Amino acid sequence: MTPLNALDAVAADVRDHPVTLDGTGVFNAMRHIDLLCHLTARMAADSEYQLAPNIADLPPATTLAASTGQLGQAVAHYTQALAPLIALTATKQDTFGQKLDALSHHSSLRVHLQGAGTALAAARTALEVQQPRPAASPPATVPQHGATVRRRA
C-alpha cells in the first residue's frame, strides 16, 4: 500500500466513524488517534528510508516528511479534542446553566476536529503533489568484442 493509499484508508475510517457526543464519540476519537499514530510512524520510517538509497518506489523524502508533520498535527488536534469531548459526554446538560457552561467545550471540540481535518487534507495534498524524481541514468554500455576465433590444438 502506498503512503497515499494508507492515508486515504485512514481518512475513510475517520469519515465513517465520526466523533459524536454519545457513548461512541470517545471511542471513535481514540480510534482515530491510534490509526493516525500508526500512519505517522510509517510515514516517518518511509521518510528515513528515503535518506538512504531508494529501495522502494516511495515519494521523495521531503514529501513524506511534510506529510508526517501534517499527520502529527492531526494527532495533536485529536488529542486536544479529548478533554472537551469527555467533559461533554460525562456531564449532563439539562439546565440552562449547564448548557451555557458547555458552549466553550463545544467550541473547542469543533475547532480541534476541524483542525484535524485540515491537517489530514494538507497531508493528502502534499502526497498528491509529488516532486519529480531525478531521471535515472541510462545503463552503462558494454563494449562489444569482435568475433572470437577458436584455435585447435
SSE inventory with pairings:
Layout lengths: L2 H14 L7 H28 L9 H30 L5 H33 L25
Give an overview of the whole structure.
It is a single chain. With 153 residues, the protein is mostly helical. The protein is 69% helix and 0% strand. It is built from four helices and no strands. It has helices spanning 3-16, 24-51, 61-90, 96-128. Helix 2 (24-51) packs antiparallel against helix 3 (61-90). The radius of gyration is 25 Å and the shape is elongated. The model has no long low-confidence stretch (mean pLDDT 83).
Low-confidence stretches: none
Fraction of residues in H or I helices: 55-70%
Strand residue percentage? under 5%
Q: Whole-Å distance between the termini?
A: 61 Å
Given helix and strand content, the structural type is: mainly alpha
Number of strands: 0
Question: Any idea what the shape is?
Answer: elongated
Give helix and strand order, one letter per element, not per position. Answer: HHHH
> What profile does the largest beta sheet have?
none
The count of helical stretches stands at 4
Mean pLDDT over the full residue set: 83
Radius of gyration: 25 Å
